[in-house]
Amino acid sequence: MNPGLDPHVRNALDGDWNGLLQLAQSQCTKSFRGAPCVGMPPDTFFPHGDSPHDGTGTRCRLEVARVRQICRACPLRTRALCLVTALEQGDEYGIRGGVSAIDRQPLHRAWCQRVDEQRVKAALNGKPVALTATEKKRIIAAYIDDPALSLSRAARGLGLSRGAVAWAAHHERKRRARTTAASA
Ligand code: SF4
Predict the structure, then answer these.
(1) Alpha-carbon span 43 to 79, nearest angstrom
(2) Does ligand 1 come within 6 angstroms of the Cβ of 104?
(3) pTM to 2 decimal places
(4) Distance CA 156, CA 134 (A)
(5) Per-residue pLDDT tens for 63-110?
(6) Are 67 and 95 in contact (CB under 8 A)?
(7) Residue 153: DSSP 8-state
(8) Whose CA is nearest to atom 5 of ligand 1?
(9) For a pocket test of ligand 1, which of 43, 44, 79 has the largest count of ligand atoms closer than 8 A to its C-beta?
(10) Are 158 and 143 spatial neighbours (Cβ–Cβ below 8 Å)?
(11) Using the 8-state DSSP alphabet, how is residue 55 labeled?
(12) Residue 75: CB within 6 Å of ligand 1?
């Protein structure tokens, strides 16, 4: 249980990220000052066995519950910022925002698949945006489908060379052709 954050996490898993992101952005500065974890040994937030990749699936539930109790005392907006920062940075380890590393896995996967048209637009307008894998594919698709989108602009938006974008577009065209042939 992560009171306050749970409904937003459930919505995010259903594809609606607005609540969680708005909560995180409502933290006026990207600061964790005043969070109960400040000054604690970092190891505290890495309970034994709570690793998404250790393959054992055994973790010390008592230890996880104790850490989550600490996070529960954290202001809701800070908890949201903590969780969203972990997702943005692909930080899969440790308890973040009161969500354990193992429980966070589906959220990391959903984060990579999410598409925020505003972020895609911002990237194409030259803003430095950390795009998800799906948002990057969206730009490649837009480059193929929209003659008004130049190779240079797509490359700038993706932070790639023109050659890399042309190569990715070539593969995407081939993938589309295979899909069309398979469904014909
Ligand atoms: S939610 Fe994040 S910032 Fe708050 S106590 Fe837990 S680890 Fe620290």
Answers:
(1) 18
(2) no
(3) 0.73
(4) 17
(5) 889 999 999 999 999 999 999 999 988 899 999 999 999 999 999 999
(6) yes
(7) H
(8) 71
(9) 79
(10) no
(11) S
(12) no
